[in-house]
What does this fold into?
Amino acid sequence: MIIEVEWMDGAVEGLIAYRSGELVGKTLGQMLIGKDTDLSAFQVAKDSLTGKVPYEVELLLYKKDGTPVWLFLSNNPIYNNKNQFEKQICIAVDVTERKKAELELIKTRDEALRLCNAKESFLSV
It folds into this structure.
């Protein structure tokens, strides 16, 4: 089962630099995957979509112009009164700045550990 874009609001257009009209009838995920996208996390999202189950995931995706953007995606299936699947609603939040800060903290921690190990090595000599 492939879920195609039916409608997208202006805020999401701003996040990914595609206009809603450019995406209607297309699958959004495949258009946003890039070289550093975690394909295993993307597959979890894709499988959840296909299985019509809710999911939340953070993915590094790429805007229309190729600029990377980290998005937190929360997706929920919508069922009619006969409990039949109708569509999916996805909320996207740009978490790029938070992810940059996380990566900087990891880099700083690794550097501090390296310096600490060097100091211990020096003092032991």
About this structure: The chain has a mean pLDDT of 85. The first strand starts at residue 55 and ends at 62.
